[in-house]
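Bench notes, bay 3.
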Amino acid sequence: MNSSVFLHRLGSHQSPTEPACYITSDMFYLEVLMKPSGEVLDVKVAHHGEAPVVMLKNFEDFSKKLEGFSSLYHIHGDSETKIKTYLALQSLETDLMKMSRFPRPVVNNNPRIDAILHGRVGNLVPRREGNPMSIEYFITPYDQLEEQMMPGLSCYGNKVLVTVDGTSILHKLPVASLIEDSQQVENERVSLFRGLDGAVSMDLPACFFLKFPQPFPILTSFIENIQRLTGISMVGELQYIPFYELLTRAVLEQKHCTVDHLDQYFLVSLPDNHFHSYVLSQEASLHLKKPPEGALINNIPFSHPEQVPSILEILRHQSAYNTLIASCITTNRADKGSVV
């Protein structure tokens, strides 16, 4: 127990009256109930101002869950600042949950896929234990078809995690729900957000983030659109390179395939022993004034819940484009000169 506490820089103390240990931080505490023999009976977690809830009974997962809790709160400042930042995260999650319940178009017979592709905030899974709130915002046509062909199967699509993190500059963040009411406009419910006045917002050394489970290839033009939307620059963290090279390397690395050189055909098998061959090259886009560039991004900073639906719409477009191009990138390759 002490090693985990040391690794995660948390405090701890043991109950003087019962076989229980408490692991504490500025943001939350964990209550570990034990048998007299030392075996763990239960683990409960309580955030600031909230009642304890059962976390898990499997001690093997305890360290991973503890690490997840600690990673949620990389916040600068004193205890009061950290608590206010947690209130900001709570208010964001509350408004995202409200938006997730707004009516959406019914396009598929699968409510989850409709939520992913047509919901204001995708398919939202609330924060639980050491796992941040997640938003599933895109699923490929192939996975949609597979779910239709195999009832009960769930193919997981692209997602982002909703977190708050410390920053070197102040951002005005809401510390209370901003959705006051809703009204019917052209048969759709439109959220009405309160302004960020002093009663519902604070300047804090933190920012909200949509974090990707793995680096996400995105076009420069979409990055610029997101930055205009949020008013927060990501330029300092990014390295722009030709987009087709970027996406090719990312896809092949996911398939654990090394990239010797990109001047190759990718061979896609077809029925009856036929195949298509593709080559992705910046040379093919020289007719453009500026060939497309892009970057790998790990997260998207933002400061207002109203920005999330627009960000997700941009990510859906990029994901659809990436899926199309990635379908041409395979581990079956041949040099240009060897293909007739």
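Next record in the batch:
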Amino acid sequence: MNLESAKRELEEFIPHVRTMSDCSVRKMAGRDLTRFKEFKEQGIAVKFGRFSQKENDQLRKNIEDFLSVTAIDSAEKLLFTSRYPEEKESISRLKVQHGFCEKLSEGIPRPWRLIYYRARKMFDPHNYKGRYTEEEKEKLKKYHALHGNDWKKISEMMSRSNLSVAMKYSEIKSAVNYGPWSKEETQKLMHAVEEVFRRRLEREDANSLSSSNKSHRDLLIDREKLYQKLPWTEIEAKVGTRYWRQCKQKWSTILTNRMTKGQQLYMGIKGLQAKVNLIKRLYEMKVEDPNEVNWEELSSTIGDVPKAYVRAKFYKLKVTSVPFWQQKTFSEIVDYLYEEKLPELEKKL
């Protein structure tokens, strides 16, 4: 299949495929296109975002099955083969021989690359090693000065995961403020987000507008795109004084204030009604996993707000109302809220 045909066929499943590199498109056409078509025939859509518990369980099964067939003795050796130079050749041969790519993605309607990244995160023994010591932070700064953004190399030197060292460096590379946002910081955040949206719009309508018109046009953005996935580490770098997670939270607050015209939707009688509506809708959904909840749809139960706002309010509700919530499943938490907390809230209302 030539490159243009691959892009055309993948576009049905990956709308942003034309923004990807040619190399990535070719890999996706080889690894994913046939799978995507098979899922479509079964009425299953390709998914993005957080993995559900069901998908995590399927991924664990796929790894266990592959280890059983090949007699490779650990998931770490399978997914981090370069850590075992003496066995690298034999493990790589087994992976090719037994179709590692196909086996890893079996039953999971997502791009292979995302499945692979998820597996590496789940099975990396260095991924959950607790807080960084001051000594580790200094080492991280030193290694970054020597190797730049080669997170794979740095992760091996520090015995931490790629993601862990990359995010920790993002957090410590410069002085970070933790108090209220200044006017200057907020303006930097707004400009950084605007720049991202302008760049996206220019890619979308490159063929329909002249470059001179594009550079001066007003931003007209579908509201849903205002809180879709944004490149937060890039935005963090432009703000300069805030960690990326702070930028994300601040942007959600700005959107909420704009969309609600500054009304305090979660205060007083409105707050009680919002909690009642939220609990009822979650209970009616009968969902087992929070990743399967349509938080966008739920936003109307509180008011005209971003889904991040709804998730934050649900988190606060369960933490303050459900005893030992950490030990309960999502459905058990919702059942408790419905059976125990809802009557109390309705009485107050």
